[in-house]
Amino acid sequence: MVFSSLVFLGFYLTITLLIYYCVPRKFRNLWLFVVSLIFYGWGEPLYVLLMLFSTVVDYSHGWFIAKYRLTKPKLAKGLVVSSAVINLALLGFFKYAGFISNTLKVVVPFLNIPVIEVALPIGISFYTFQTMSYSIDIYRGDAEAQKNPISFGAYVVLFPQLIAGPIVRYKDVAEQLQHRREKLELFSNGVRLFVMGLAKKVLIANQMGALWDILRATSETNGVLGSWIGIIAFSFQIYFDFSGYSDMARGLGNMMGFEFLKNFDYPYISKSITEFWRRWHISLGTWFREYVYIPLGGNRRGTGRTLFNILVVWFLTGLWHGASWNFILWGMYFAVFLLIEKLFLYKLLEKLPKFISHIYALIVVVIGWVIFFYEDGQGGLSAGFEFFKTLFSGSLISGQALTSVISYLPLIIFAVIASTPILKKIYLYFKGKGWGFTVVESIGTFAVLALCVASLVNQSYNPFLYFRF
To answer: Dihedral, CA atoms, 55, 58, 59, 65, nearest 10 degrees?
Structure first.
């Protein structure tokens, strides 16, 4: 993490919230702007300048787009293109320059192209898409230009969701930037949401990651069942890691009067790949739908064009996740299943028993995580292919793998339950009964927080997986 977890919880967050509620309302965006820059600059001080540059570029472009949108539409459109080019050029250089130069070095070795090594600014994929949405929303008339540069800066660098999402479109928070009202009920909900997100990360994701590391290291001898449990453990790790961060971001936003849209909706209960991607990383899917898929024509120009648009979106979705061929393959892998479902399979899945559709979706998703995990730093596609073979060949399970699985079995069972709406339904049932539930809820939240802190004391540095995207 940018700060260590304990420093963030015990010092940074406490001071931030205390001063936030002490300063006059008109200065709260300024305070958020300052502390967010400190938060980001703590780990990457040089890249604060890059973030400020993006802020100035998009603020100025937005101002001129709003001014000329109706009177000089061609100029306004040109400014939207200019904003997109600048943002994508920055993202392309810092995220993909090394990937492109490495690829060219292999394809055309006789040109002696130098390999470009550039450190990836944390969160650049997220805040780049956010700032791009600002210019586009103003051009479309979906939002008004932000007149206050400090308020716009607060939107760009807002620390709760700065480095791993969710991707917050400007039009979704434009009103909140100026007129939000902090309420005790919203603050309390934010605390609960933050603690639950922290628990997802610390108590489930990290432990599932440890099991995945154990089984991955011995994948050649684990047996078929051992390999499947290993990649299922990674499936739980990435879900609880990323949804945990999203919950923490939404919780922190609530504490300061913001309400960010939900980013995950129990994706592992899906009965098709189409449904899975309506439930997984909702903010990214929404961004690509509104700013790429629909402008390309969506599903309004016939089946052929619709299929082409889906391929484009999923190529970009894979590429967005990282500068490695496995991510592109991962995106196209899901594109194929989405195309098949679009053509005929989705209607068939609706007629099948739900458990069969569910098993189909889970198998496709879990195999997809094999492709996703084995990027260049993990051995690349060849290592992923070798692991893939262990899912379908060999003994059932080795004694060593069985011992590891048994030791983690209670947590695996809990992860299965926690990835469904069961616990939420139980929570809402008892909440509706009253019976002094608020007191019990507060005690439970504090107990979970204490358990997380105790666990963090014994854990080494373990950042969120999506920090690197």
So the answer is: 180
To the query of whether residue 61 is one of the catalytic residues in this protein, the response is no
Q: Which two tokens stand for residue 170?
A: 């400007």
Out of 61, 281, 321, 358, which one is annotated catalytic?
321
> In the structure encoding, which two tokens stand for residue 323, read together?
């500068």
Distances in whole angstroms, Cα of residue 121 to Cα of each of 95, 113, 124, 144, 436: 8, 24, 6, 29, 47
SS (H, E, C) 56-67: HHHHHHHHHHHH
On whether the pTM is more than 0.85, the answer is yes
At 111, the amino acid letter reads L
pLDDT tens track for 43-74: 677 888 888 899 999 999 999 999 999 999 99
pLDDT tens-digit readout, 4-43: 666 676 688 888 999 999 999 889 999 999 988 888 877 6
Domain boundaries, the chain: 5-180, 186-457
**Alpha-carbon torsion (260, 171, 313, 58), positive or negative:** negative
Tokens representing 329 are 């393959």
321 touches 330 (CB < 8 A): yes
Question: Using one digit for the tens of pLDDT, what is the confidence trace for 452-467?
Answer: 888 887 766 566 665 5
- Which among 305, 256, 328 is positioned nearest to 13, based on CA atoms? 256
448, 195 Cβ separation under 8 angstroms: yes
Other C-beta atoms within 10 Å of 218: how many?
Answer: 16
